[in-house]
Specification:
Blueprint (H helix, E strand, L loop, with lengths): L1 H8 L7 H10 L7 E7 L2 E11 L2 E9 L8 H15 L4 E3 L9 H11 L18 H27 L3
Parallel strand pairs: 3-4
Antiparallel strand pairs: 1-2, 2-3
């Protein structure tokens, strides 16, 4: 479902979805991610993965079926997630990144879930410390290659007629 959704939106994720399966396998039971699937007419139409640690819930991944987005299964899963988080004692729900220009549908959706009490937060970014200059330069070089590869996939996908 996630693969179809990413193709539909032409979105190149910055994460590897399969890594979450490995993480879930190794987490202790108390920290396992919550996986929710919404079905319509006995077929999955949306899925959501979230986590709750302390007083904060975090929306990690979500997907919706290409043909059934009008059924609003994603909305139902968000409300079920909020209820699950409240039952666990969470006071906060981090819906993750938003980009009103590149992904206006998700921006609108997340703003609707957050309501009047939601707010946009800016993150300072990622900081990394290196043992030596060689390791730093290698990391910078590999990150540039990764960004270039992601950009090329996006451009090629947008050039293809189908």
């Amino acid at each position: 479902m996630a693969k179809k959704m990413l193709n539909r939106k032409g979105f190149i994720p910055g994460i590897n979805y399969h890594d979450y399966r490995l993480i879930q396998r190794d987490l202790p039971k108390a920290l396992k991610m919550k996986i929710m699937i919404c079905e319509f007419q006995q077929k999955p139409i949306s899925a959501l993965i979230c986590s709750a640690i302390g007083d904060t819930g975090i929306y990690l991944l979500g997907a919706s079926d290409t043909e059934r987005t009008k059924v609003s299964g994603s909305n139902l899963l968000q409300w079920r997630t909020i209820q699950w988080l409240k039952d666990r004692g969470c006071r906060w729900y981090d819906l993750g990144g938003i980009d009103p220009d590149i992904n206006p549908g998700v921006y609108h959706f997340k703003c609707g879930v957050a309501g009047k009490s939601g707010r946009d937060e800016k993150h300072v970014g990622q900081f990394i410390a290196y043992n030596n200059v060689r390791t730093c330069l290698l990391s910078v070089f590999l990150n540039k290659i990764k960004r270039f590869q992601r950009n090329m996939k996006f451009q090629v996908k947008n050039w293809l007629p189908c």
